[in-house]
């Protein structure tokens, strides 16, 4: 599978509590991700095309598809697998995002939620037809997603009609970023300057903004992420989000010895698992913001 990563970046480790953003697709492929562990984070899976079977150590066995949200809270430890349906290559495209858990939740029990009916709202237009936003997680405008989150946060998909120019509301005390998913996207910096967001670019919007204007000539699908700036420095390695090298090393060793903290994934044999890579020869340090 081809996977492209927009976050973290060397100078920008987090946007709010968002610490990871991958996109796999669009592509024709067979997806086979055997059981693997997580700690200290929430995974947010947002499919665009195709169907993915999720199985985890809590006993959940579900198929996630376009319009459905899978959100898995790792807490102290969980394991899961992700398979495309059938034995042949299928069309797949999805966003997979991680949210760092705050100190008071990251040592708690794992959890899993699925939401098939997410709230939407229309956005005020300056030109063209109104845009529609799906509030995937957190709060956006006057709307709140039913997904359980543990920090002040927003994740929203916005569909821009062709020829539209739309005002997107933001919270000025939060930081935000915007990602182009499909189509052409311009962020209006001022009356004389537009910023084109291309490919898999993530445009960081910073703080102290109460709105931005976005425009599209041919129509676009974009993803807005943001939230209250995350207070902790994190150590992120492989599938783990922690606060120190020692926590990462302990989590890795627990997975390698088959510790009960990660449980067992339904429908997989004990030998069906992703082994952890070796730790680097240097000490893992916290990711420091440079912007």
Automatic annotation (TrEMBL):
Protein name, as recorded: Pirin family protein
Q: Which family does it belong to?
A: Belongs to the pirin family.
Q: Which InterPro entries match?
A: Pirin, Pirin_C_dom, Pirin_N_dom, RmlC-like_jellyroll, RmlC_Cupin_sf
The segment(s) forming the Pirin C-terminal domain are 156-258
Named cofactor requirement(s): Fe cation
Keyword list, A-Z = Iron, Metal-binding
Disordered, as annotated region: 262-291
Q: Name one GO molecular function term.
A: metal ion binding
Short name of one Pfam family for this protein?
A: Pirin_C
Query: Which superkingdom is the protein from?
Result: Bacteria
**Note describing how the cofactor binds:** Binds 1 Fe cation per subunit.
Listed binding positions for Fe cation are 36, 38, 80, 82
Q: Where is the Pirin N-terminal domain?
A: 3-99
In its keyword annotation, does this UniProt entry include Nucleotidyltransferase? no
Organism lineage reads as: Bacteria, Bacillati, Actinomycetota, Actinomycetes, Micrococcales
Q: Does the keyword Metal-binding apply?
A: yes
